[in-house]
Design goal:
Layout: H1 2-25, E1 30-37, H2 58-64, E2 69-72, E3 75-79, E4 82-87, E5 93-98, H3 112-121, H4 127-133, E6 134-141, E7 144-149, H5 156-160, H6 173-186, E8 194-200, E9 204-209, E10 220-227, H7 231-240, E11 245-246, H8 251-259, E12 264-268, E13 273-278, H9 291-300, H10 303-311, E14 316-317, H11 339-348, E15 356-363, H12 367-379, E16 383-389, H13 391-399, E17 406-411, H14 417-424, H15 437-447, H16 452-468, E18 472-477, E19 480-484, E20 488-490, E21 507-508
Parallel strand pairs: 1-10, 1-11, 15-16, 15-17
Antiparallel strand pairs: 2-3, 4-5, 5-7, 6-7, 8-9, 9-10, 11-19, 12-19, 13-17, 13-18, 14-18, 20-21
C-alpha cells in the first residue's frame, strides 16, 4: 500500500501532462482563412460526378470531399478513404479495403455501397474510358470493394486514383438518392475536411471544419472561397488583408506581391499547359487544314518572352500540350520564334497577305495567353479577334465542340501522357475536335500494353506524329503564382497541384 501511495502523485502528474498534451493537439478549430479564386465558382464543381477533365473543380473537391486514393504531400497515390488496395497478378482485379469508421458530413457511415454508387454515377472526363474497361464493380462486404476489368489496363489507377478524373471521389448514396443531383449541388455532403455552409453565386463558397474528418480535425474553423476574376482586385484585397491567399498573379502584379512587406509570393509548378487548338484542321476548305499555316502560327509565338514576362521566369515555354513532368513524355524539338520563316510559309501556302482568322476563344482567365497568340498572328499578317468567356461557360462550349477555327485550351488535370492524349487528341476525346485513324490505332494498342517499354514507345510515336502534323500550337507550361498574406502560418501544397491543398493542413499564425 505504501508503495502504491508513493507512486500516486507521479501517476497523477503524468496523466495531467498527457491530458494537457492531448488537449493541445485537439484544440478546437478557430479563425477564418479567405482565399480569392481567379474564377467564378460553379455549383457543378461541388459534385465529383461531373468534373470535365480539368483541374479547376479540385479547388473545391479537396475541401468538401475525399477519394479512395488521391495525391497528397509526398505521395501521388496516398491511401485515403481506402486504407489499402491490391492488384491481382493478371492485372484484371483491383480490390480496395475501406477505412473503418469514416463518416460523411451528415453522419452516414462510408461503405462499399457508396463507392459503387459514386463510380456508377460518374459522368465527367474519363468516364467513357473507365466504364468501357470495367467489367464489374462488386461489393465483397461493407468495407471491401472489387473492380474487375475486361482486360489488363495499366492506367486504371492513373484514372481512378488521381485528378485525371474524380471517379474515385465518394459521395453518400442515400443522401444523393434522397435529394437528387440538383439538390446535391445546392447542398453537397461529402467526407472531406470541410463541410458545406453556404454558397452565394458569383460571390463566395463558405465551408467549416468537420470535426469528424478521419485524418485530423482541420485547425482553421472556416474557409471562404471568394470569386474574384479581376487580378488587380485580388491584389488590392491581399494588400488590405481582405483575403489571406490569392491565386493567379502575373507579371507586374506578381512583382508587387513579391516586394510588398508582409506578403509572400508562392510559386507552384503544376502540370498545367496551355495551347491553341486548330479546330478546322480536318476541313479542306479552311486555311488551317494546311500544315504550313499551322506551322506558321507556331513560329509566330514568342513563347519565352511571354513566359518570362507573365510568370517571372517560373513558367516554361511549351513544346507540347503534354507537360514535361508527365510519365511517357516525348521531348519534341521546340518551335523557334521566327516570324520571317512564318511569313514565307504563308506565302507558300497561298496567303502572302495573310487572312482573317476570326475569333480566338478562351477562358477569360487566360486572356494573356490568347493575346500573345493574336499578337504573333498579327506579325505575320493574320488578323484575329479575342473572344473571352467565363470559365464554366467556356468549358461547356468546348466540350460541346461549339468553337470554330482557333481555341486557346489548357489543362491541369493529373495523369500521364496517355490521359492527356485521350482527352484532347484521339477521335471522340472529350475535348478533341477531330483525330487521325493511325493515332487512334496506336492509342488503342498502348492502352492494353502491359510492358512499360513497349507502351512508352507507342506513346512516343503518337507524340511524334502530333508534332509532325502540327496538330496544336503549344504556348506555355504555366507557373501558379499565389500570394500569401501575413496571417497564414502554413499554406500546404501537393506536387503538380496548382491550389493550396490539403485544406486540413492549412494553418494560421
Amino acid at each position: 500500500m505504501a508503495h502504491r501511495s508513493s507512486l500516486a502523485p507521479v501517476v497523477a502528474l503524468v496523466l495531467t501532462l498527457l491530458g494537457s498534451s492531448v488537449s493541445a493537439q485537439v484544440a478546437a478549430p478557430a479563425g477564418q482563412v479567405t482565399l480569392a479564386a481567379t474564377v467564378t465558382l460553379a455549383p457543378t464543381w461541388f459534385d465529383p460526378a461531373e468534373t470535365p477533365g480539368v483541374i479547376t473543380p479540385f479547388l473545391t473537391l479537396y475541401a468538401l470531399h475525399d477519394a479512395l486514393v488521391k495525391p497528397m504531400p509526398g505521395n501521388p497515390f496516398a491511401p485515403c478513404l481506402a486504407e489499402s488496395w491490391t492488384m491481382s497478378k493478371d492485372g484484371l482485379v483491383y480490390e480496395f479495403v475501406l477505412r473503418k469508421g469514416v463518416r460523411f458530413h451528415n453522419g452516414d457511415l462510408l461503405s462499399a455501397e457508396d463507392v459503387k454508387f459514386s463510380f456508377e454515377r460518374y459522368k465527367g472526363g474519363g468516364a467513357t474510358s473507365l466504364k468501357s474497361r470495367v467489367a464489374a464493380v462488386e461489393i465483397v462486404d461493407p468495407q471491401r470493394i472489387r473492380f474487375r476489368l475486361k482486360q489488363p489496363w495499366p492506367d486504371f489507377m492513373t484514372f481512378y486514383g488521381t485528378p485525371a478524373t474524380s471517379a474515385g471521389w465518394i459521395v453518400p448514396k442515400k443522401y444523393v438518392e434522397r435529394v437528387g443531383d440538383d439538390g446535391f449541388k445546392k447542398a453537397p455532403v461529402g467526407a472531406g475536411p470541410y463541410r458545406f455552409v453556404s454558397f452565394t453565386p458569383g460571390v463566395e463558397l463558405v465551408v467549416e471544419s468537420f470535426d469528424g474528418y478521419w485524418r485530423k480535425v482541420p485547425p482553421v474553423k472556416r474557409v471562404v472561397l471568394k470569386s474574384v476574376p479581376d487580378e488587380s482586385t485580388r491584389l488590392v484585397m491581399l494588400k488590405r488583408g481582405e483575403t489571406d491567399i490569392a491565386y493567379g498573379f502575373r507579371g507586374p502584379d506578381a512583382e508587387e506581391v513579391r516586394r510588398t512587406a508582409g506578403l509572400t509570393l508562392k510559386p507552384i509548378q503544376p502540370t498545367v499547359s496551355q495551347w491553341v487548338v486548330f479546330t478546322e484542321q480536318w476541313d479542306p476548305k479552311s486555311p488551317w487544314s494546311d500544315r504550313r499555316v499551322r506551322l506558321a502560327l507556331n513560329l509566330a509565338i514568342d513563347r519565352k518572352g511571354f513566359s518570362d514576362a507573365e510568370y517571372l521566369g517560373f513558367g516554361r515555354p511549351a513544346p507540347s500540350i503534354i507537360p514535361r513532368d508527365f510519365e511517357f513524355y516525348w521531348t519534341p524539338p521546340p518551335y523557334p520564334h521566327d516570324p520571317a520563316h512564318a511569313r514565307r510559309l504563308l506565302a507558300e501556302a497561298g496567303y502572302p497577305k495573310g487572312f482573317d482568322a476570326g475569333e480566338v476563344a478562351t477562358d477569360a482567365v487566360f486572356t494573356p495567353e490568347a493575346e500573345t497568340v493574336i499578337n504573333g498572328l498579327q506579325t505575320i499578317g493574320i488578323r484575329a479577334r479575342l473572344r473571352p468567356l467565363e470559365r464554366a461557360s467556356f468549358y461547356k462550349a468546348d466540350q460541346e465542340k461549339q468553337f470554330k477555327r482557333l481555341v486557346r485550351v489548357g489543362s491541369g488535370a493529373a495523369g500521364n501522357a496517355a490521359t492527356r492524349i485521350e482527352a484532347f487528341v484521339i477521335s471522340g476525346g472529350i475535348r478533341a475536335y477531330g483525330g487521325y485513324p493511325d493515332i487512334d490505332a496506336l492509342f488503342r494498342d498502348q492502352a492494353v500494353e502491359v510492358d512499360t517499354k513497349r507502351r512508352e514507345a507507342l506513346l512516343h510515336k503518337i507524340q511524334q506524329l502530333m508534332h509532325e502534323r502540327v496538330m496544336f500550337a503549344p504556348i506555355v507550361e504555366q507557373a501558379a503564382l499565389t500570394g500569401v498574406g501575413p496571417r497564414v502560418a502554413e499554406a500546404p501544397t501537393i506536387t503538380g497541384h496548382p491550389f493550396i491543398s490539403p485544406y486540413e493542413d492549412l494553418r494560421l499564425k
